[in-house]
Design goal:
Layout lengths: L2 E8 L3 H8 L9 H4 L3 H10 L3 E6 L14 E4 L3 E2 L14 E2 L2 H13 L5 E3 L6 H10 L11 E7 L9 H16 L6 E7 L16 H10 L4 H4 L4 H8 L6 H9 L5 E12 L2 E10 L1
Parallel strand pairs: 1-8, 2-7, 2-8, 3-6
Antiparallel strand pairs: 1-10, 3-7, 4-5, 9-10
Helix pairs in contact: 1-5, 4-6, 6-10
Bound molecules: 3,4-dihydroxybenzoic acid and fe (iii) ion.
3,4-dihydroxybenzoic acid (DHB) binds next to helix 1.
């Protein structure tokens, strides 16, 4: 049976993609951010997942305001990124795992989650930058797993509640664990932490709230479901709603997790940058 090894979160800021391109790992601005990743690289080397379920929020490349699925799951043989205007390179395609994708979609729809299935899905920086952070050289890393993208709407209201995001993760876990092949799966939650890119509060970062989320997500995620969507926008910023991805990831890990490593650094670009690796018991 397929098994979930753990979950990893990271901010997915486009400027990070450019810093990777320019190899700014030891630059004084970037070092405290990139220092959060070697422990994750070691865990990936030690555990070698076969599949990565990458939970991110599309920002307008795969979907636009005219058609905005609340939850979409990729079911393609491969996934390509495209030029979004950030100066990020167009990479070779990321190989998919359509059999597991369809199994998850079947399972989740039976579980009463209404999923948009995507046999084609261009993937944006929210998907690609975390892949580059965790598997340097992606998709050409010798340990690169097959990918399944899952995108949730954080762009156009109404966005899902934190409880729905956690419940989505729990249903995702049932879908993955009922797949008959022995596959090792890692789940990513990308985006966040606090940031607001536009409007009167552009540049808003809330360290206290970010720490509250980081301190509770491993062992007390139900507590975080009490946060309303209005409160989330207020406390995390309009784009800090990307924390929903972290909740989806957390739901997929089951009750007992161990924190392997954590990093938090502000600011990177306009964002509170958080990285967390949780291992399943
Ligand atoms: C930034 C952060 C994001 O999550 C994003 O999607 C785009 C930009 C930023 O901090 O600049
Ligand atoms: Fe984003």
């Amino acid at each position: 049976m397929a098994k979930i090894l753990g979950g990893i979160t990271t901010s997915h800021i486009p400027a990070v993609g450019n810093a990777i391109q320019q190899e700014l790992y030891d630059d004084p601005y970037w070092k405290p951010f990139f220092d959060g990743y070697p422990k994750v690289h070691q865990w990936i080397k030690d555990n070698k997942p076969d599949v990565v379920v990458n939970i991110y929020n599309d920002h307008g490349l795969g979907f636009f305001l005219d058609q905005m699925p609340t939850f979409a799951i990729g079911a393609a043989h491969e996934y390509k990124n495209e030029d979004e205007g950030w100066g990020l390179p167009e990479l070779d395609p990321f190989p998919g795992h359509p059999e597991l994708s369809w199994h998850i979609i079947e399972s989740m729809v039976s579980d009463e989650f209404d999923i948009t299935s995507c046999q084609e899905l261009p993937v944006d920086h929210g998907f690609v930058v975390p892949m580059q952070l965790f598997w340097p050289g992606a998709p050409h890393n010798e340990d690169m797993p097959k990918a399944i993208p899952i995108s949730a709407n954080t762009v156009q209201h109404p966005i899902p509640t934190l409880k729905r995001a956690l419940d989505f993760g729990k249903a995702l876990r049932r879908g993955i664990e009922s797949f008959p092949e022995d596959l090792k799966v890692v789940v990513l939650g990308t985006g966040g932490l606090s940031h607001q890119l536009d409007g009167e509060r552009a540049g808003f970062i809330n360290k206290e709230f970010d720490q509250y989320c980081l301190n509770n997500i491993a062992h007390n995620p139900e507590e975080l479901t009490k946060i309303t969507r209005m409160e989330l926008v207020e406390k995390a910023g309009a784009q800090g709603t990307e924390f929903l991805m972290w909740m989806m990831m957390r739901g997929a890990l089951g009750d007992n997790v161990t924190e392997v490593t954590r990093n938090y650094h502000i600011p990177i670009s306009n964002t509170g940058a958080g990285t967390l690796l949780l291992e399943c018991a």
